[in-house]
Design a protein that fits this description.
This protein is of the alpha+beta class and 294 residues long. Helices cover 20% and strands 33% of the residues.
């Protein structure tokens, strides 16, 4: 009987000793964290995750980033199944795709302000009364020219409007002989009236209207040179020399009047305008030109 009681006591002591040993082998926080970290690194679904594992009093805390919601769930599952873990605090975040992040940022950003309206360039308007000084391309005469005859010339000085060059120097102009009348020996008067009809700017021809240059000789050599139309009376004749050679009659505009420059009287009192003489006309109507190229 005493032997039986001794055996029972030994069994109880053995069980208590085994329980004590088992309790003494409970994993530490470091062991728990290290084991979970190793399992996450080894699992094919979570090995690419950037996760840190910490444990305190057997409670596991997960931090870092995972590549997908499925990987996040797998990491948490590994931690919860860890022997000795008393709980899991999952603080991991799912990495966002860079393209999706950029799209989300763009969607969240306020829309850019609309661009300011582009002001269309305005046409150039050369006002009525503007002076156009030209050099004629051929000689004109009250004796030899014919009414309705066309003459050509080039713009001698650039014409500006609104602070911009409207008609560059060198632009081609066309005109017409409004009246050509030779002076008789006994009576009558010599007349040579001119007007411009068109100007060519950068290859484009535009019709223009100008005052008529009335150039008259009558009586005993009396000579007048008047520009009529558009309020342009009061032209001036300057220093013309008939027969003086090409360019000999070129002069300059005097005062505000637009008039005939460079003509002269011949011995029989005819009106002669040598080639390359300078003539000034005034617009009697505005001229509209397209805006300059941008």
């Amino acid at each position: 009987m005493r032997i039986h009681k001794l055996s029972i006591s030994i069994v109880i002591l053995t069980a208590l000793l085994g329980l004590s040993i088992a309790c003494s082998k409970k994993p530490s926080d470091d062991d728990i964290a290290k084991d979970i970290q190793n399992k996450i690194a080894a699992d094919p679904d979570t090995k690419d995750s950037q996760v840190s594992v910490a444990a305190k009093d057997a409670k596991v805390t997960l931090t870092g980033q995972v590549k997908s919601p499925a990987a996040q769930q797998k990491v948490e599952q590994i931690a919860r199944e860890e022997p000795g873990a008393a709980g899991v605090d999952d603080q991991t975040a799912v990495q966002q795709d860079p393209a999706a992040a950029a799209a989300a940022a763009a969607a969240a950003a306020p829309p850019p302000p609309p661009p300011p309206p582009v002001e269309k360039p305005k046409p150039i308007v050369v006002p009525s009364g503007t002076t156009i000084t030209i050099t004629v391309g051929q000689a004109l005469s009250s004796k030899t020219s014919q009414t309705g005859q066309t003459f050509i010339g080039t713009v001698a000085q650039p014409v500006s409007a609104g602070g911009r060059t409207a008609i560059p120097s060198g632009s081609t102009v066309s005109g017409t002989v409004v009246t050509a009348k030779s002076k008789g020996k006994i009576k009558g008067q010599g007349e040579l009236d001119l007007a411009l009809t068109s100007v060519t700017v950068k290859g484009q021809t535009y019709n223009i209207q100008t005052g008529v240059l009335d150039n008259t000789v009558k009586g005993k050599g009396k000579r007048t040179a008047v520009a009529t139309g558009g309020g342009a009376a009061g032209g001036a004749l300057i220093g013309g020399i008939a027969g003086g050679g090409k360019g000999a009659g070129i002069g300059a505009l005097v005062g505000a009047g637009a008039g005939l420059i460079g003509g002269s009287l011949t011995g029989n009192q005819q009106i002669e305008i040598p080639a390359e003489s300078a003539l000034s006309f005034r617009l009697s109507a505005p001229l509209t030109l397209p805006p300059p190229a941008q």
